[in-house]
Amino acid sequence: MNLHQIIEQHWQHPHPILRLFLSPLSKLFAQIAQRRRAQFLSDKGSLKTQKLPIPVVVVGNIHAGGTGKTPITVALVADLQARGIKVGIISRGYGRKSKQIHVLHAHSTAAEAGDEPLMLYRRSHAPTAVAANRHAAGMALIAQYPDLQMIIADDGLQHYQLARDIEICVFPAADVGRTDLDVLPNGGLREPVSRLQDVDFIVVSNANHDTFSAAQTYFRLPICAYPSEKTLFFSQIQTAAAYRLNQPDDILSIGSLKNGARCVAVAAIARPQRFFNTLIQMGFVLQETRVLPDHAAIDVSTLPHADYVLITEKDAVKLPANAPDNIWVVPIEAQISPDLAAEIMRKLGFQAALS
Prior knowledge:
By secondary structure, the protein is α/β, with parallel strands linked by helices. Among the domains are: 56-85 and 149-238 and 335-354, Rossmann fold; 241-330. It is built from eleven helices and 15 strands. Strands 3-4-2-5-1-6-7-8-15 form a nine-stranded mixed β-sheet, with helices on both faces. β13, α9 and β14 (327-330) form a beta-alpha-beta unit. The N and C termini lie far apart (56 Å).
């Protein structure tokens, strides 16, 4: 087990000795994060935010990855589109090779756009742009799509350079109830849990029925102090049948698997075990699982030999069109309740579109 794995294990199951050494560093990290935020948001701050000409809704998290944010963003965009709102998406485009502003199009690649923005674009068909400077990405997107009414900033909670009208924080259900959460490196948070006091909405991801009442209590503890008049939302994950990568109309069911078929799963995502567990729950018997670093490129020549290679949609966008036909993609969708899109529209004054 390498150092990174030891630290991540400590985040989930704190070790007293590691806590002793890492806690002072986390206090320093928290102070730096708070000071940086104040530089943008304080009246006396030395840095200024940049505002786009249309409303900006930030969907982000205080965790260092793996909260289930991307399916929630897809679901939110779809819900807004269903109400007639013309929505655009901006993102940093983590892991892409280009540093230029890129407005996505039908032939965009993960190298140009990043895997998550490309997946968001393909799933939602919403105008999408990526750049390290989110304001610049937004301006480029609006220039090309002047009829946009709203921008969703994906994973931009800590990008304080961009002014925002609404902040949404995605919080994993697995951490509901924990009072030992800490910022990096003693814990896996980018900002303290107290940051939730300032967001507009919290979406508890991968929730179940037991999470609902627990969350109502947890987010009103002193460590969170999330105001009682604000609304909590919950997302539940649903999986659809796997489809063949190079023939999306070809659907795979458990009953159609060949007798004695070898099934393997490959994932380059933040929490791969969740994907593997989902496949097992669907009925797949996995002979092998392979984990790659989050956002890593997948070389099809190095994939395990198998009758069925199961991957995520995030990984699928990185593969070439002529990939082997034994690769199957497992779509994951989020359902948000209550109606987050309606609350956003009310808060931003889109009442007419609700009727």
